[in-house]
Task: inverse folding
């Protein structure tokens, strides 16, 4: 290669970021289901010819650490058997996947016969069959109840589509048009990655590979540099999930972070054994959650590539909720990922307190409502986000994505156009943020009224019993709450439930807020008064939490 | 003889260009008057009319790009605002769409909502998605809110109800009742700025409109009055964020479409010049007194976006993730901007680092060398000390105090940092240059385009002073200086056209489209467009029309526009589907076989001025008193120190000549450093060719 050129390096680095950005945009533009198109539950990655992540779009970060394991598997299984025009798909958690709704699509990119890399697009499909609409139930007890399992196989071979596989998918899902439409969107996105990576190759030729290596080294160097500035030692933190939907027993997620020079080990020994309900998380997913949380404590200019992972070792005992054995159910595993984020964040707070926040809302709440309206099937999978905890020098944020994702909300006007539902409220929940010198963000309220005759409601919430923690004297946030109104009578629901409902039923979720940061007595009285004036904190709560007397301003 | 006048108000200077019907143009540059921007307009207009020998009444059009909207948002100096919305949804505006512009950054903050929660009030009313009334509107709620707002000193109110795009009745009733009861509070109904689904995007666009409306309306009213009292009878047209022109009345009602008015006009002018001169790939670099900006013309097309988020600091060069600022769903030229201009103040930060900007000395007090009371050194002071700028102000109107600039740089920067005056001045220049490189990188490198494949086109009062050094940092080897670069934005508007858009929802399968139905829809849209353009003085024979139909696969949200003829017959409709599938293939790489639906029909109409600027036939009347040259003075260049530097007036420059070279004109100064060669192109631009970097 010609001499290393820092400008070429910068152009290639940003060029890769631009390609994944364009790919992410293409999914949004071409997808059909609201969960992909509006809520943006998908992720996009470019890998090099060895399957190493070169760049990730600003999409769901929880997906992306799982890509290396999936790529290793695909490269091994299809060694010598990948050709231009091939496309591989998979979703089986016990064979490269995470949970069944997340279908991975992996397209090898060639220039002539040279393998340049891979487009990888993971999308959360609105339904993949199984016993509950949305295929997301937290109360399944084995993977076989959760829907269609796809081991890594070719959806396209040398450009020809595998109609058998498409037909099997179409026959096993509740909304084949949306699922196949979103698969098309993934395919279109893979093609855009292919087109643009080839363009980069045409411009820079075989030097490209050398720059890819440099890029990964660069990610590793920056990560190690940051870690080496942290004090050596062991740091422990434990957070809890309320229960698995069958047992009310708290489920511990325990982590020990060990800083050794420029390397970090995160060991989840002591976490709960695998559970009956569907909140077991694959180890690949746990690695995702761990990487991304550590990434938050690094500097912002560290690139999102596989070099970062080289400085981090993640361990979780086999047979635990964080590394389950077949056929444990996993559909609602995202919740466990959020708690891994919270536990690792709690550990990092002892290492880099200026970089972290008190616990956020605890991950999105999933409200799935499915059934038939006018003879046609519908499945709403709505996700409620979110609040950030207080930070070392400022309040948390209300109305924001969990940092492990970068998801959006389903616009009410779009939801009501597509589903037999009426949204009655979408707003902040006063007093739900934990008190502190810097208070936590407020949780959100979302209230739905069913207009169809009957439907199946499936709720996956948490933080009923174990509210988001505060840090350094900050108070925990308010717990979350599910309620239902049938025939004019309100009652509380458990955090996780599957239930038949009828027309006129109102479902209300009040999300937990974020925890507070620092001693509440140090809070600026002007900030308390402003919160009262804006109805974000009530005068009573201000008096109870801060000893504040007086009105808002 | 008639003439068109174009005015561009920057933070530091107000530029004016007058184009006479005989094709001769006149320009001038006067100090801006930020407290009352219209003062500088009138001062400049008198000067330029006198030079052209014309009376105010001979003006046929006054074109104007304004930064009042963007400055109001940037400085958070807008109106005290209230919001009325549907019961249960007061927080939609503050919740937003939840996403963050970056990831893994827990120090990020959402922008403060333009309407505080206490001033977001709910009204009992409800429509469903079909536009049917579920709960009739309680006008009493609207009036009670108004009484509260009046008591709190609220100046401007936004109204956005759920599903109003489908049935505007409630929103219209609320707006009418509110306006009747509280005539002193401005009202913006969402259906008047963005009649589209998406409650957050509509609320936010409406709130921005309400927030900047009083400032822009007040300013444009004062400007129009002043123009009238000067004897100007011509219509006042304002450049919008998309680079088109609209009547001032529209800008007063819908200021949200004019937030980036100033920036867009320059980029559009550059694109037009690029097209006229066959330059397909350009980085457009504009440096004024307060900010520098960059836009990209790639394969002849200027970057545009249909929505953007406004926030202080760098704009984010991503189509997928926006800047995390104030969302506006309005068509806009894609421009990256940094707070670094000629008036930017150089200082030492708490960490001991030399910094430049974003604080600007502006027009008052201005740089130290202006002698208007400025005490803190600016980029202009550095350039004057280094001999790169002439020792007098634009047009020769004011002697500059070079000694005062030297003293200030020595005192504020040189002594504390242990540097000579020259070293400190060169340092200011280097830092300003690297700041501005960020804006260019944002529209090139960060989109995977290698700037070395592009030419740089430099304009703005200070762009030509820095362009060659900025290009060198990026490895760009060719820099173009268009005619009159210092007033180029004003010039660009004269090449512009008045635009008007009409949109009608169709929402049906493509097979259901009927020729007769489309024809009558087109007739209705044409009538509306002709009426709108007639109000701005354009007769039907001067208007061009183009139709697009927006198509998408059933179930998708985003559509692709396909051109459609007037009065289509069955044959014309039959080609829509294959055209869509080809466009889909071009865009997304495969040919879909799914059902296709027609979402909406768009009419794009343009009123072409009878005397649009012709870039290929520019004749500028240069006033005699420009520049010191020809001559020689000492100039100090980075890496070279003091060199004898040739100084020429632009009208005398024949080229080619090697740097160091300074080319002066009334509106700007072109600095050609050692190692670069300047020549004149066939179309009257100056081209600097830089040595390839090793």
Result:
């Amino acid at each position: 290669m010609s001499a290393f050129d820092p400008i070429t390096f910068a152009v290639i680095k940003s060029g890769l970021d631009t390609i994944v950005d364009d790919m992410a945009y293409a999914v949004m533009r071409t997808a059909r289901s609201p969960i992909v198109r509006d809520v943006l539950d998908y992720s996009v990655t470019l890998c090099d010819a060895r399957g190493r992540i070169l760049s990730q779009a600003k999409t769901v970060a929880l997906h992306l650490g799982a890509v290396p394991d999936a790529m290793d598997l695909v490269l091994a299984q299809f060694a010598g058997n990948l050709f231009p025009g091939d496309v591989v798909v998979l979703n089986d958690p016990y064979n490269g996947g995470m949970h069944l709704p997340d279908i991975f699509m992996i397209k090898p990119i060639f220039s002539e016969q040279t393998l340049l890399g891979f487009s990888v697009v993971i999308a959360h499909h609105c339904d993949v069959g199984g016993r509950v609409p949305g295929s997301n139930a937290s109360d399944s007890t084995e993977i076989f109840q959760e829907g269609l399992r796809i081991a890594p196989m070719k959806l396209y071979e040398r450009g020809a589509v595998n109609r058998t596989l498409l037909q099997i998918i179409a026959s096993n899902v509740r909304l084949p048009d949306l699922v196949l439409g979103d698969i098309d969107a993934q395919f279109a996105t893979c093609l855009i990655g292919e087109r643009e990576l080839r363009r980069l190759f045409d411009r820079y030729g075989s030097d490209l590979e050398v720059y890819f290596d440099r890029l990964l080294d660069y990610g590793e160097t920056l990560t190690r540099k940051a870690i080496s500035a942290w004090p050596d030692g062991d740091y422990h933190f434990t957070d809890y999930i309320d229960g698995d939907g069958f047992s009310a027993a708290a489920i511990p997620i325990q982590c020990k972070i060990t800083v050794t020079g420029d390397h970090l080990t995160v060991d989840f020994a002591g976490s709960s054994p695998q559970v009956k309900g569907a909140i077991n998380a694959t180890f690949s997913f746990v690695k995702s959650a761990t990487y991304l949380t550590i990434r938050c404590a690094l500097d912002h200019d560290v690139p999102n590539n596989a070099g970062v992972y080289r400085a981090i070792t993640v361990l979780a005992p086999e047979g635990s909720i964080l590394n389950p054995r077949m056929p444990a159910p996993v559909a609602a595993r995202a919740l466990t990922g959020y708690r891994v984020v919270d536990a690792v964040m709690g550990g990092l707070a002892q290492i880099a307190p200026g970089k972290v926040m008190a616990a956020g809302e605890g991950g999105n709440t999933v409200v799935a409502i499915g059934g038939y309206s006018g003879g046609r099937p519908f499945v709403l999978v709505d996700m409620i986000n979110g609040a950030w905890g207080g930070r070392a020098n400022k309040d948390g944020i209300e109305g924001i994505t969990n940092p492990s994702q970068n998801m959006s909300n389903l616009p009410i006007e779009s939801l009501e156009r597509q589903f037999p539902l009426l949204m009655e409220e979408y707003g902040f929940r006063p007093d739900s943020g934990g008190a502190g010198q810097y208070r936590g963000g407020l949780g959100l309220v979302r209230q739905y009224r069913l207009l169809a005759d009957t439907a199946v409601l499936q709720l996956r919430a948490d933080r009923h019993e174990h509210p988001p923690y505060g840090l350094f004297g900050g108070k925990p946030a308010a717990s979350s709450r599910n309620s239902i109104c049938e025939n004019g009578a309100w009652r509380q629901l458990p955090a996780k439930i599957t239930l038949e409902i009828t027309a006129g039923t109102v479902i209300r979720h009040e999300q937990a807020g974020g925890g507070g940061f620092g001693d509440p007595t140090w809070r600026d009285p002007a900030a308390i008064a402003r919160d009262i004036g804006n109805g974000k904190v009530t005068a009573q709560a201000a008096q109870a939490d801060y000893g504040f007397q007086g009105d808002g301003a | 003889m008639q003439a068109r006048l174009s005015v561009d108000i920057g933070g530091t200077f107000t530029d004016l260009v007058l184009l006479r019907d005989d094709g001769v143009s006149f320009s001038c540059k006067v100090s801006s008057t930020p407290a009352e921007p219209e003062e500088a307009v009138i001062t400049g207009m008198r000067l330029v009319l006198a030079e052209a020998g014309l009376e105010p009444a001979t003006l046929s059009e006054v074109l104007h790009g304004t930064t009042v909207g963007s400055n109001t948002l940037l400085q958070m100096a807008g109106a005290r605002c209230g919001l009325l919305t549907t019961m249960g949804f007061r927080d939609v505006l503050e919740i937003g769409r939840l996403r963050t512009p970056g990831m893994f950054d827990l120090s990020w903050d959402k922008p403060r909502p333009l309407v505080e929660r206490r001033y977001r009030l709910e009204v009992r009313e409800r429509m469903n998605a079909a536009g049917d009334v579920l709960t009739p509107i309680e006008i009493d709620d609207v009036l009670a809110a108004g009484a509260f707002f009046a008591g709190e000193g609220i100046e401007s109110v936004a109204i956005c109800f759920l599903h109003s795009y489908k049935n505007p009745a409630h929103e219209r009733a609320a707006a009418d009742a509110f306006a009747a009861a509280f005539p002193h509070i401005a009202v913006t109904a969402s259906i008047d700025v963005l009649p589209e689904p998406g409650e957050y995007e509509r609320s936010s666009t409406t709130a921005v409109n309400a927030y900047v409306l009083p400032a822009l309306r007040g300013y444009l009213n004062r400007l129009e009055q002043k123009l009238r009292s000067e004897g100007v009878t011509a219509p006042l047209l304002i450049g919008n964020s998309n680079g088109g022109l609209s009547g001032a009345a529209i800008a007063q009602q819908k200021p949200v479409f004019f937030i980036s008015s100033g920036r867009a006009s320059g980029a559009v002018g550059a694109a037009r010049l690029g097209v006229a001169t066959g330059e397909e790939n350009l980085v457009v670099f504009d440096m004024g007194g307060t900010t520098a900006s960059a836009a990209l013309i790639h394969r002849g097309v200027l970057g545009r976006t249909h929505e953007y988020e406004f926030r202080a600091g760098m704009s984010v060069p991503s189509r997928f993730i926006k800047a995390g600022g104030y969302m506006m769903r309005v068509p806009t030229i894609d421009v990256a901007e940094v707070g670094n201009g000629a008036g930017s103040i150089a200082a030492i930060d708490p960490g001991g680092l030399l910094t430049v900007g974003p604080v600007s000395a502006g027009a008052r007090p201005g740089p130290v060398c202006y002698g208007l009371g400025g005490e803190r050194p600016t980029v202009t002071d550095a350039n004057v000390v280094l001999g790169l700028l002439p020792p007098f102000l634009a047009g020769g109107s004011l002697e500059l105090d070079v000694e005062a600039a030297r003293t200030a740089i020595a005192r504020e920067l040189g002594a504390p940092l242990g540097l000579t005056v020259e070293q400190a001045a060169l340092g200011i220049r280097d830092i300003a240059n690297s700041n501005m490189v960020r804006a260019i990188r944002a529209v090139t490198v960060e989109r995977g385009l290698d700037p070395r494949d592009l030419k740089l086109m430099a304009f703005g009062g200070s762009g030509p002073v820095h362009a060659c050094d900025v290009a060198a940092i990026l490895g760009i080897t060719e820099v173009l200086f268009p005619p009159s670069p210092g007033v180029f934005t004003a010039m660009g508007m004269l090449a512009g056209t008045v635009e008007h858009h009409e949109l009608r929802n169709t929402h049906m399968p493509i097979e259901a489209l009927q020729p007769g139905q489309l024809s009558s829809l087109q007739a209705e849209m044409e009538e509306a467009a002709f009426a709108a353009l007639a109000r701005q003085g354009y007769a039907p024979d001067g208007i061009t029309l183009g139709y697009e139909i927006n198509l998408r696969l059933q179930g998708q949200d985003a559509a692709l526009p396909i051109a459609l003829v007037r009065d289509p017959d069955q044959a014309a409709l039959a080609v829509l589907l294959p055209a869509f599938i080809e466009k889909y293939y071009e865009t997304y790489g495969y040919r879909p076989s799914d059902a296709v639906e027609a979402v909406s029909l768009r009419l794009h109409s343009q009123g072409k001025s009878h005397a649009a600027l012709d870039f290929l036939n520019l004749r500028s009347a240069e006033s005699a008193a420009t520049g010191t040259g020809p001559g020689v003075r000492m100039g100090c260049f980075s890496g070279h120190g003091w060199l004898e530097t040739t100084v020429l007036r632009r009208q005398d420059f024949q080229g080619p000549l090697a740097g160091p070279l300074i080319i002066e004109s009334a509106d700007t100064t072109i600095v050609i450093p050692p190692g670069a060669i300047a020549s004149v192109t066939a179309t009257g631009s100056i081209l600097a060719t830089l040595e390839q970097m090793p």
